[in-house]
Amino acid sequence: MRRAIDVPLVNQWFKEHCPGGYPVKVRVSYQKLLKCYVLNKLHQRPPKGLKKKYLFRSLRSTKFFQSTELDWVEAGLQVCRQGYNMLNLLIHRKNLDYLHLDYNFNLKPVKTLTTKERKKSRFGNAFHLCREILRLTKLVVDSNVQFRLGNVDAYQLADGLQYTFSHVGQLTGMYRYKYRLMRQIRMCKDLKHLIYYRFNTGPVGKG
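== PROCN domain-containing protein ==
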């Protein structure tokens, strides 16, 4: 049995006929999601009969992996911390002490840079993509931390997380460094249209 938390609520909605009164952008979202679903179904092959391999067991037998009973929020905080340290090491390896990386993963110069310093302080797409992914991770982890501290209730947490994943394009600049991510960002936006127009009806209006 699947836990109640894992049941996909929205998965069936775009397979239904879109109501006629909805704006064009919402109808387009319905079409896009349905098109993506059909494409995935067409390219899906029946699974081959393979001998079951347990990934965790094979990883556990190597010296690089360990198992832990750590709480998910704790693990998230560790990921953010280690990611921050990793990016800082890369910055200091290039002796760029005039660049400051804050805990929200914003990279800013501490003074007005000369042309030579600007040239030296350029990083590749991989560095910036890691930085933006860690920024998104930190947003999600921070939301859960606020919930654990009792500053927000479960409804606010759910709303915040839904907003975060619906507005990845506004909250982070990931697409600048790997433009193919726009596909997933647009898909999240389509799901947002689907959800908002299903719930924000009647006296509630647009949320």
